[in-house]
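Person: Show me a sequence?

Helper:
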Amino acid sequence: MQASEGLCLFLHHISALCGYLCMKRATIFVLAFVASLSYSCRQSKTDSEKAPAVSVAPETVAEISGPQVLLIYPGSKQADSLKRIIGAEAFYRLSDQNGSHFNELRNNLAGTGIATHVSESTRFRFIADDGAITITDLSRSDSPWQVLIFTGKGTPTLASPENAFQQACSLFDLPDLFDLPEKDISHTTSKDFKKPVKTNIPAYNPSDAREDTLPTPTAPLFTETNLRLILPPGVKPPSNRNETSGFRVVTSYISPEQRFGLIFENDIFSNTDRYYTNGVKLDYTAPGLINQPVNRLMLPPGHNSIVHASLSLHHAMFTPFTTKNPPLLDGDRPYASTLFLRYSQTSECAEEGIILTSAIEAGVIGDAALGRYFQKSVHATVPTNDEPLGWETQIRNDLVLSYAAGISKIMLQNRNTEVSAAGSAKAGTLHTYAAMGVEARAGVFTSMKTKLPVSNAELSKKTEKWQYGISGGLEFRLIGYDASLQGGVFNRNNIYTLRSKDIERLVAAMHLGIFARYRKLGIQVSQNYLSREIREGRHHFWGQIGLDYTW
């Protein structure tokens, strides 16, 4: 494009896209798609030499908050499975034994003010007073009789029925009255607290049942954890951040950072008007986005990581080698335009130097993306520009729905240099590909490798006053499908598309640029290269300008 055309197109994009935000087709589809999907839990392999673990159908997660002790009994399905595995006689003997322990525990805690509740659920969602969330799954435990002790802080503690009272005394800072002399009972802090009564419950002897009797639990309980919410300034995170009580505690922080970004791409910087000719991206990052339902589709964050969530609007236009003549419709790139919303999540794991990304995209390709409107109206406002010919042959309207995931690992890092290896994949109706590459930065900048914070204040501390340097990268992509070349998946009523054999399956992409940032405001300028995408095509260059404001 000519310089005047490119400037006008950029300004026209901004105004037109803002008006187009009222269109809700893509957003409605995202919500419908998310609602139609279900969450499934992973299942572990069972040792063939051991008795099979009891499995039950997925159930609703019970939400727990505040200090309490949960007494977990087997549900009807669990009970029936156990009877088949160990025999009815052994089951009832175990039930009587654990029921006696439960009654003893309830009686001993009755005067302490600690609430006890009975449940047949296997999944619980514990919410600590500092916002920490722990989701437990008891369905994989070898024994369905369990006790969960929750103090209201950190993560719950798993205990066996016979040892639960001693652990409760320790966790709630109660005296173990079994060890106190009779005369010292009156000096306890709770005046209504009675000395617990020890019952002489005979231990269950496995030899009394069949050989395939339910074994004593030996493996740690399988658990899941959600994101740990940001703690208020000055509040330290719970001490049990690692393995504790059989639970794998994953501590992640939602970044308090808010960011607005604008990226403008155009081949005006290479004095061409072909192929990928123009693109605009509006991006917004905020901590509140992490709570959206679509976040359940994202990759789980890494251990002890900083998590960012973003919502962005993407618009792109593609044209043949020239727009001044009617397209040849043979071996050239077809006209195409895309418009879609993208929700993404980024997890920065400081301990391992790994950055995980995942995203879902939903929108349209075709005339509904307004590519023809943008280019023709801009050309009409610049008298020296010719009207682009051939938009009536563009890729027809179709659905854009894609899922992308990527991983980046810092391989080399020093004070002024950072080199990372990266891999990514994308599957959907717009693009399907796999990619590998390398990224590098040099200069004065804050590392991508964020240190694990210990408080909100540390996470929110100011970065370097000035940041600047150069950045570049090289990537190789293995192309499976490209709707901008081959047409949409659902609508095949196109005037012209490329055949599969006309497409280059291995392409190379490079970029080289400079960046600068002063406190909250940042800018980046880069030149991009893409090898030929079609067998009779050419390589392509375009430039990129990006602005962002962070607070």
Notes: The chain has two domains: 3-37+253-550, 62-214+220-250. Residues 14-58, 178-235, 237-249, 453-457 have pLDDT under 50 and may be disordered. The longest strand covers residues 466-482.
